[in-house]
Amino acid sequence: MTDAVEIGTSGHLERPRMDAIEPVQPNCKSALSPSASAKFPQEKAKTMMATEDPELDKCRPVIISSDGLSFRPGDPENPKEWSVTWRCYCTVVAIFLVVNATFASSSPSGCLDRIAEEFEISTNIAGLTITVFLLGYCVGPLFFAPLSEFYGRRIIFLITFTGYFVFNFLCAFAPTFGALLAGRLLCGIFASAPLTNAPGLMSDVWNPIQRGNAMAVFSMMIGIGPALSPVISGFLQLTKDWRWSFYVLLFMGAFSEALAFTIPETLPSRILVNKLRRLKNEGTITAIELQYLVQMDEKSLLRTFKETLYRPWVIMLDPIASLVAAYVSLVYMLQYMLFEIYPLVFHEQRGWNSGTSQLPLIGTVIGGWLGGLIIFYFSAREKAHLQSGAIVTPEDRLPAAMIGGVGLTLTMFWFSWSAAS
């Protein structure tokens, strides 16, 4: 019976296999299997029967079709039916949680000299504070992505960001370098959840065209966060000590923690299951709706992990997906290399102080905003094409990637030649 229903890729609950559902009889009692009847006593669940009457089906708060369980049009609980203002607010809060993670990822790069001096280590060893944080980025999604599909977005946001906030205290008040590395690793693990959870939230609340704009802002902030933090930590090193870099993260984290509690649940499958539970408690659930609920209650967390961890490997067999992932990995590798290279070029070679030597990173911030504006333009153009009846394909977004790819190559050569001189 546990195989009778699955969570679809669209976030809907797929319809159970018809051989797993007992035929509906003229009364409620025969609609449940013995195991389901034991779980839901008939005197407690005054079950309404599924019907072929379309007029009666229109009265149901959920739609059951060949595609599975979905929201009825205009349902106020459907995240895509929320007001634009509320959806924008949820998106902004989710992105701000991501900014905390990206800001923290490169924060120590502006004060590596002071860290090395206090713990009597080399600057290269002090750079491990960035490396272990990025390692946490790699580990965290393996756990938090399946958990968000099983328990929902909201609870994962709250638990993981609280963990990130708490372990930042360990970094700020670390008595030894080992404690600092441990705190950074744990912060990286917990900070990775918003990076994987925020795109899921955007997918829940926006349609594909609107989602392009939301993802543009998301991508902008991913690049802006790690570029700004070294600048701030570099200037803090001039007047304070390296621990102030982590104090800033704590101030940001405290504010973001309060915002995180305002995010509602957006995962459609979780909202639909909660809706069915309310119908069961009210005694107005139909037999097939109750069957969905039984199947979902029997779905195990282990199976969710298997499905969620198996799916990326299937996607990676696609040449386009694998090549895009490899290219994005290369871009991020080059970006984080710059956090280590800029101090060498501008601080050691040119003699700039630890604050001004990080200012060239502002170019990354400007580039992020310009890239976001380009994506907004392409999204507006796609929307106009759709309204005119034209067919829009995924390849229509390639020109923006082509411009960025060529520009990245040229500017990296430009920086290398100018740095050598």
Label the structural class: mainly alpha
Taking strands numbered 1, 2, ... along the chain, how are they ordered across the largest sheet? Answer: 1-2
The description of the largest β-sheet is:
2 strands, antiparallel
Low-confidence stretches: 1-56
- Could you tell me how far the N terminus lies from the C terminus, measured between alpha carbons in angstroms? 70 Å
Beta-strand share of residues: under 5%
Overall strand count? 2
* CA gyration radius, whole angstroms: 26 Å
Helix content: 55-70%
Q: What overall geometry do the principal axes of the alpha carbons give?
A: globular
Quick rundown:
With 421 residues, this protein is mainly α. It contains 16 helices and 2 strands.
Write up what this structure looks like:
The protein is mainly α. The protein is built from 16 helices and two strands. The protein has a two-stranded antiparallel sheet with strand order 1-2. Helix 7 runs antiparallel to helix 8 and helix 7 (153-172) runs antiparallel to helix 10. The radius of gyration is 26 Å and the shape is globular. The protein starts with 33 loop residues before the first helix and ends with a helix. Residues 1-56 have low confidence and may be disordered.
